[in-house]
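Next comes this protein:
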Amino acid sequence: MAFVPNPTVYIDPSGLIIIVGSSDEETWASANERAKATGQTVLPASSLYPGALANEPHVEIIAHGSPEGGKVKFPANGKNWISGQELGAELQRFGLESNAEVVVVACNASMQPKKGQSVVAGVNQATGNAAVGPSGIAYVRPYRLASPGGANGSVDLTGGEWRRAAGGTTTPVASPTAHHGTW
């Protein structure tokens, strides 16, 4: 697999998927802009089935994150807000590959809550897969409050940093995989 970086988006010709965890208009618009910019396939979480993530080396979740961290809006087990461990279990149930990278584009996905663990740490613990997400507020362009510049489909991060959870530790990263700057 090869990534071709550029300052705001990336191109990956093989196996990219976006899972939409929140069913509101803003989240769908964000997912569709990401898909246009990256060539990813978009699926609503409600349409996943066992084996749906087989052969997908990069899985991106676009959803709302809890202001306190530790939860993401994703329908599972009759709940709307779930922990990273629960999200990881759902991804495994749908066939997440053992070497797939998981990127959670949700506000505060890597923020350590007062109790429990961040969403990305929970995904990593549940699956063993590296998981990346923002510790601040994430916006996918275009959105109504966007500052000038940046390509549609890129992700802006306000008041935080990107963090990667792998091997039980969470560390800051410049940007997920070959994504650069605002992605």
